[in-house]
Amino acid sequence: MEADLTLIGKALSGGFYPVSAVLSNKEVMDVLKPGEHGSTFGGNPLACAVARAALRVLVEEGMIENAAKMGEYLIASLRAIKQPHRQGNPRTRPDGGGGAPSRCRRRTEILRALKDRGILCKETHSHILRIMPPLIVTQAQIDEALVEFRAVLAGE
Q1: Where do you find CATH 3.90.1150.10 in the chain?
Q2: Model pLDDT for residues 42-86, shown as the tens digit of each residue
Q3: Mind listing the pLDDT tens digit for each residue in 21-46?
């Protein structure tokens, strides 16, 4: 199944310049003819150059592949952590967001304990911790973080 329109932004320029884009197939995009729609900042040459450079870095430095590989490793490692009161399993989302569900302690206590150990997460809903490592994260860095996750989730 394909969406009629996909809107992208935020990280499109690597955070250096406000850039967004609309993606679609030719059939949908051809509804608008040249001159029928305009934008105050549309087609900004600087914004386009910044976005192209950011996308080039993502591809040339293998950040997308690294994120996928390290994401799989992180999720598998989080799933292996024994938590008697956990409901569900750690999961990933296509946008890179993931979560480590836990009801063994209140989420704010877990977040504070992780923060005190140098791990920043975001609370989401009532029982999900959002973990967003950088695209360039290494396995060694994940292993360091897992030591802290294990300790906090064990109640240490």
Answers
A1: 63-153
A2: 778 998 899 999 999 999 999 999 999 999 999 999 888 876 555
A3: 889 999 998 898 887 877 777 778 99
Read off the pTM.
Answer: 0.70
Q: 8 has which bridge partners?
A: 21
| Class of the CATH-defined domain 63-153 | alpha beta
Q: Which amino acid is at 68?
A: A
Q: Which residues contact 129 (CB under 8 A, 6 or more apart)?
A: 99, 100, 101, 102, 107, 110, 111, 114, 121, 122, 123
- Determine the length of the chain: 156
Contact call for residues 129 and 100 (beta carbons, < 8 A): yes
